[in-house]
Each structure stands twice: as C-alpha cells, then as structure tokens.
Amino acid sequence: MTGSAEDEERSPRIYADFMKTDDSGRLVLTTIGTRLDLEMNQLDLAEGMRMTFWEGSDRLEDGGVEDIVAEGLVHFDKKQGCWVAEIDPGSLRHETEDRSWYEARQRFLESHPEILSDTTNVARGGTNEPAERQCDQ
C-alpha cells in the first residue's frame, strides 16, 4: 500500500483514534473526530477507499502539535457492524507540518455545530459515541 507523495496529497486526511483497534489490529472508525472529518470533506466511507489517518499526539515546545499519521484502506466489517481501516505499517510516521487544515477543520465545526451532539471533545477527536455505535469487542 505504498504510493507516491502525489497519491498521499490526494488521500483525504481523516481522524482516527490509533488506540481504538479491533482484535485484528485495524483502526475502528466510529469516533466523533472521524465523523467530523468525513462531514467536512463530504465523504462517505466505501470499501477499499484509501485514506490518510491522523491523530494529534504530542505538544511541542514551540506550541505546535506532532501528529501520528498513516495510510490505510477502509473496510466494512460485517461481523462487528462498523467501518475499520487496515493501516500500512510502513506508512506510519510523525508529522509537524502545516496545520492550516486543522484550522479549517475548527472553522467548519464552528459553522456546523449540528453535525455533532457533543462538541466539547471534537477538537481533539474525542470518542463520545454512544456505546451501541462502538465497534469494540
């Protein structure tokens, strides 16, 4: 699942909680942060869709944030009843690049508060999903 830098630029950048995985080690795509990024990019998940997944991780001394980023393929797990992403381990990296997309994400959230029922945790990609929508085992 490797690709050129041009391919990575075209991949939608979608929040995923890298600690929220299923028994197969795939990212579970049920968080509010995931929904926010999908709505902002006007995307519906589809089988085999290639995406760039991110999670804000560490605050840097200069006030910036270093993100964990990886490329992955989306699959619908019928047994669990939710979307998951299989990450390409070779694509896992840390990024501290331009955060203008993050500012755009915040502006989108401020202008579309109806998308989410609880916005207090969304800026951090919170996991405020109701239990029945979780895809955990």
Q: Features of this protein?
A:
alpha+beta, 6 strands, six-stranded mixed sheet, globular, 137 residues, single chain
Poorly predicted spans: 1-8, 118-134
What structural category characterises the helix and strand content? alpha+beta
Integer tally of domains? 1
Number of DSSP-assigned strands: 6
Distance between the termini: 27 Å
Please indicate the percent range of residues in DSSP E strands (runs of 2 or more): 25-35%
What best-fitting shape do the alpha-carbon axes yield?
A: globular
Largest sheet: 6 strands, mixed
User: Overall mean pLDDT score?
Assistant: 76
Total DSSP helices: 3
Q: Tell me the Rg in angstroms.
A: 14 Å
What are the secondary-structure elements, in order, as H or E?
HEEHEEEEH
Could you characterize the architecture of this molecule?
The N terminus is likely disordered. The chain has one domain. By secondary structure, it is of the alpha+beta class. Strands 1, 2, 3, 4, 5 and 6 form a six-stranded mixed β-sheet that branches.
Write the layout of secondary structure elements.
Layout (H helix, E strand, L loop, with lengths): L4 H6 L2 E3 L11 E2 L3 H9 L9 E10 L5 E13 L4 E6 L5 E3 L4 H12 L26
Parallel strand pairs: 1-3
Antiparallel strand pairs: 2-5, 3-4, 4-5, 4-6
